[in-house]
Amino acid sequence: MAILKIARMGHPVLAEKARDVPDPTAPEIRRLIADMVETMIDANGAGLAAPQVHVPLRLVVFQAPAERSEEGLSEEERFDHTAPLTVLMNPKIEVLSKDVEGGWEGCLSVPGLRGFVERPAHIRYSGTDHEGKRIVRTAKGFHARVVQHELDHLDGVLYPTRMRDLGKLIFESEVRHWAKGGG
Ligand code: NI
Questions:
Q1: Centre of ligand 1 from the C-alpha of residue 74, in Å
Q2: Does any domain span residue 167?
Q3: Does residue 126 fall inside a structural domain?
């Protein structure tokens, strides 16, 4: 395994539309997944998309542990709001409600910054996992946010372009000045 170099905002690979993974269980894809997971954990990220490591394929890894949710979760909420370490290839996404939720996002390709982004609050996503099995899940809260953020990378979209108010693009070190929910 290896820690991979992460592309930073401005690198053309982050602006391309990625291609489908032709064979999700191929040995080179297994190696890429192992390296991406190691890279994400090393960088303390919640998610990583293949284009961020200079590979323009539709593959993301992410996790949504309960600690990442701002409010305490009930047992029932835990189901939609959290996800274990997940590998998702050739994903599809569907918005399930008109509700939109704002939250602070960061990105390993945009180091040192945080931005307040509004996104659909309730989604369903599907795709293929690392064993070639189909995943279908519904997601809310941080889970819904991380999936949408990572899937955006596959279409060449970085979170600042989703922001409505660039006054809420701030340095990580200044997050303490902002109330929960973005003020
Ligand atoms: Ni990102």
A1: 28
A2: yes
A3: yes
Q: Is the pLDDT of residue 101 over 90?
A: yes
Interval between CA 137 and ligand 1 midpoint (Å)? 21
What confidence tier does 70 reach under pLDDT thresholds 50, 70, 90? low
Catalytic residues, by residue number, are: 150
Residue 6 lies in a domain: no
CATH number for the domain spanning 175: value is 3.90.45.10
Supply the pLDDT for residue 4: 98
Into how many domains does the chain fold?
1
Handedness of CA 117, 121, 127, 129 (dihedral sign): positive
Distance CA 111, CA 48 (A): 13
Q: Is there a contact between 150 and 62 (Cβ–Cβ < 8 Å)?
A: yes
* Beta carbons of 52 and 60 less than 8 angstroms apart: no
Domain housing 139: 12-179
Distances (CA, A) of 88 to 24, 25, 91, 127, 154: 9, 12, 6, 6, 12
Residue 1 confidence (pLDDT): 79
Cα(60) to ligand 1 centroid in Å equals 10
